[in-house]
Specification:
Layout lengths: L1 H9 L4 E5 L6 H4 L6 E2 L3 E5 L2 E5 L2 H7 L3 E4 L15 H10 L3 E4 L10 H8 L9 H5 L11 H9 L6 H9 L4 H30 L17 E6 L4 H16 L2 E8 L5 H13 L3 E6 L3 H11 L4 E5 L14 H8 L4 E5 L9
Parallel strand pairs: 1-2, 1-5, 5-6, 7-8, 7-10, 8-9, 10-11
Antiparallel strand pairs: 3-4
Helix pairs in contact: 12-13
Amino acid sequence: MLQEAQALRQKGVDIVIGYFESHGRQETIAQTEGLEVVPRRILTYAGSQFEEMDVEAVLRRKPAVALVDELAHTNVPGCERLKRWQDIREMLDAGIDVLTTMNVQHLESLNDQVFHATGIHVRETVPDWVVDEADELVFIDLTPRALRNRLERGVVYGPEKARRAMENFFTETNLTALREMALRHTAHEVEEKLVASPAAAGETPGAAPGFQTSVRTERILICLTGRPSSAILIRRGKRVADYLHADCLAVHVKVNETDREAVERHMSFARNLRIETHVVQSSDVSRAITEFARVQQITQIFMGRSLPQPWWKSFRETVVQRVVRQARDLQITIVAERRRSGTM
């Protein structure tokens, strides 16, 4: 990011640093030489002082380009917006181009995969649509051993923080898994770009000009409840929808007021990922899901595994089993809940 900024400055582009986290790295700090820095704002929270990006100051300065580090950052309470990516959208809306950075583990749709691979639940995430709206993505690759070597040399964090990082999240196993995720995601992005033109025109690559294909439009439905596993369902369904360029909807069948707050959190999370949400009132959950899917012309349904039933109800069909029986012509994916421990 800093190298790109210096190249733009040499070309005479009006560019400033809106926020930059050096972590005390002298070789990185040296790369900011000659770049204008917008002073940070100081906020007091819980008796401590914190530095945050002064978005209003950047907007008043109105450069052509602003550098904003750590896209996934959560702002201190008292800021106008919760997340840094929301601050960046304010700048973009004001006509300021932004260069920013993030790590692959902060991509929302990969959150469950990161948790399963590393045992760490990453709390700070960025919705995929925010990244998808970027004009350009630059993938910075480094082997796990090379990165750990940088940590050992103290060019990423200070000695104590580097040691903790290497013992916890930045183990060689975790870094290998994260690198594989990043490579797969990048490969998918490249594939999308390669097929974008013929797909946009509705033509088959290599076919005669004007030849239109008949492609079945996929529509994915995510069935939400108040259970924590609904978050996993949302991420999985949205990621599949993005891969298939499919419409993505979420529905909750409301039987009573149980888990209302939890359901609303999941619905809000889905809307944040630009998933169309619906609530259906019915005492027959499976039939409501099936009928909703028919009306909405759904092709794939994502559901969580049903909770274990008491022994005296074991002969009864679960909601999932009834949906499978009632919607035999639809593809139904049952997503298991993965349990590991740890947070980040």
